[in-house]
Amino acid sequence: QVQLVESGGGSVQTGGSLRLSCAASGLTFGLSQMAWFRQVPGKERDFVAFIAWGSSTTRYADSVKGRFTISRDNGKKTVYLQMNSLKPEDTAAYYCAAERGVGSIWSDDYDYWGQGTQVTVSS
Predict the structure, then answer these.
(1) pLDDT for 70-80, tens place per residue?
(2) What pLDDT was estimated at residue 89?
(3) What's the pLDDT score for residue 101?
(4) CB neighbours (10 Å) of residue 8?
(5) Which terminal CB of the chain, N or C, has fewer other CB atoms within 10 Å?
(6) Tell me: the pLDDT tens digits for 14-45?
(7) Are the C-beta atoms of residues 111 and 98 closer than 8 Å to each other?
(8) Rounded CA gap, 62 and 8, in Å?
(9) What residues contact residue 98 under an 8 Å CB cut-off, 6+ apart?
(10) Strand 10-13 vs strand 117-122: parallel, antiparallel, or unpaired?
């Protein structure tokens, strides 16, 4: 059974930093493309960042480029999202996702999802 468990969310002020983690089990993590999405109530789940299985390829939403960094540790089966210079508009529930394809920015392409972790940025 595949499980993705996010942690590291919380409340910070504008300009602050958080590091999200997503621990995976039950899948061949080293061959999985991993991504972070975020969602606010009443809106669709939006792409944030993606990292390929070998870490050689990453991609970011324009809204987070230069502020967020995605990374992974295949030995620990964990993917991270370092979030710096946080803004109120970054407030959302953040979800980790995994898929065995070629990587995607579209949520429908992902096979497995975590339960989400809330990030709240106050002004």
Answers:
(1) 999 999 999 99
(2) 97
(3) 83
(4) 16
(5) N
(6) 999 999 999 999 988 778 899 999 999 999 99
(7) yes
(8) 23
(9) 2, 4, 24, 27, 29, 32, 33, 34, 35, 110, 111, 112
(10) parallel
Would you state the structure tokens that stand for residue 23, as one six-digit string? 């621990």
Residues in the chain: 123
User: DSSP string of 1-53?
Assistant: --EEEEE--EEEETT--EEEEEEEESS-GGG-EEEEEEE-TTS--EEEEEE-T
Q: Are 94 and 120 in contact (CB under 8 A)?
A: no
Question: H/E element holding 111?
Answer: none
Other C-beta atoms closer than 10 Å to the C-beta of 100 total 13
CB 71 within 8 A of CB 82: yes
- The overall average pLDDT reported for the chain is 95
Burial (CB < 10 A; 0-12, 13-18, 19+), residue 15, is: exposed
